[in-house]
């Protein structure tokens, strides 16, 4: 009898699609692992993306920054598309499956695009067909943006669907673990993928291992998809119920169109322009949209914060490449997720309660304003660091200038004359002290040998070149180092950012490589990466006060059924912020990077002032109270009564099921 009872209870749970372990649906464990792997995949790929643009595709800083932010903007626009597909057509489960397949294909495509040997026919370590690699990588990034953005609004909501109404405690625990997995995936991936990139790999030539750095995230995305599919039989899958965003858009559109039709002064004015939708739409929906629009109006200045924040992955990464550091370079990439995990509980449990005890009214909108100011201070800090870096950088030629360094491998000191009047005294196996700058391309070089040797050269505009004078100016010798009967080993530790020319004489084997002479073309970076830590601390503090508080405020000021609309609006502010960076990078063209940092800081300060004024005139509301008032005016049941009725029905249903079990036992 006991076995029959257990069997019946188990079958009832199975019919509902729920199996439990420690009070939690087993299905959520698949969802949590899926989220960890997906976030590892996304942030791991993004951690080295701008470096791939800069050092593999050989794009300049501005183009690399523009494409990076165009990709991030697309990642924050596609969630709207994903939400509409899930709610109106496929449902959350199928949307996650299909778009995860697109996502995985994108990651694999991106990894393939980084294999230089595919087009390296002459095996010199450099791709011969950059168009192929660019086209493949752009296709991969588009697919990744569609995938990661499309599943973003679905995964957390799908996890929430696995719980029943009475499991609010378990639901809160799930979301905490879910958020932890996001940060854990971000932390580990930003720590590991830069290390993978630093390895050397290749079929014919050994280069920085971009295939491994992008390949590991691709593998993690495939694992994420497999894990999610593995739990398919345990999920609670709800049918699409229609997308609230589409209803909101139609209601707003009708209100605008109806207002335009009745624009004549003969028609009486209405209290709010949304009231022009009364003829067609429910008053409760209109009241809810009014509350949402009130919050969305406050979103208008917010993109500027994201304009600064998301440059951590572009401008700040490029800034780090001009600095010195070894282990610290790995640490810097993980500063943001580490600080997030540290600062969120400190702010919530210590800082904010302490401010409240001091009697200060530190409202959510004031917190967001302070968060903006912290982000502005972070960019002032970045500008100060950049000024120190600029002091150590070489003076590169402008687009109309050329630079030349002369290296002497002759056995004696040489007097070198470069037209029209540049005279250099260069010791044997030495070089000119620095690059010589010319404002013209065509030069003539004369050596005071016997007889005098004169030769004309044409320089490249906007570039640096090295002229090597061979040991016998009349005969050019080629030296080949062979690993055979005669060989020697020469080692030199390079500094970050340094450039060297090594002069190898014909006697290199007889003196065990000691005759190799080093010419330093460019000094190593001397400003340490640790100086970036303050700006990361400031921007992360700003993120905690702005982003976390902003979402909490938004959700508290809008009806429950409108949270997806606010989520879409919030993501759009992030997308617009990245588009602003793209525009400034392509059109701004400021001569100094520190000036661009100060420009962004100044703009954010100005925007924070505007936002503080808007916040001053904002009146906090209780959405539930307003909804209850509208329901009362319409003669509808309060929402609480509806919930009680539903709960009573569910309770009756449970009692019927229980009674059926007892009958089976008898």
Automatic annotation (TrEMBL):
It catalyses: L-leucyl-L-leucine(out) + H(+)(out) = L-leucyl-L-leucine(in) + H(+)(in); glycylglycyl-L-isoleucine(out) + H(+)(out) = glycylglycyl-L-isoleucine(in) + H(+)(in); glycyl-sarcosine(out) + H(+)(out) = glycyl-sarcosine(in) + H(+)(in); N-acetyl-D-muramoyl-L-alanyl-D-isoglutamine(out) + 2 H(+)(out) = N-acetyl-D-muramoyl-L-alanyl-D-isoglutamine(in) + 2 H(+)(in). One of its GO terms (molecular function) is symporter activity. It comes from the Eukaryota. The chain crosses the membrane at residues 21-43, 63-84, 96-118, 130-151, 171-192, 212-236, 291-309, 329-347, 368-387, 533-553, 565-585, 597-621. One of its GO terms (cellular component) is apical plasma membrane. It holds the Pfam family PTR2. One of its GO terms (biological process) is oligopeptide transport. It is a multi-pass membrane protein. Residues 643-659 have a biased composition (Basic and acidic residues). It is found in: Apical cell membrane; Cell membrane; Membrane. InterPro entries: MFS_trans_sf, POT_fam, PTR2_symporter_CS. The keyword Coiled coil does not apply. Keywords: Cell membrane, Glycoprotein, Membrane, Peptide transport, Protein transport, Symport, Transmembrane, Transmembrane helix, Transport. Electrogenic proton-coupled amino-acid transporter that transports oligopeptides of 2 to 4 amino acids with a preference for dipeptides. Transports neutral and monovalently charged peptides with a proton to peptide stoichiometry of 1:1 or 2:1. Primarily responsible for the absorption of dietary di- and tripeptides from the small intestinal lumen. Mediates transepithelial transport of muramyl and N-formylated bacterial dipeptides contributing to recognition of pathogenic bacteria by the mucosal immune system. This is Solute carrier family 15 member 1. It comes from Cyprinus carpio (Common carp).
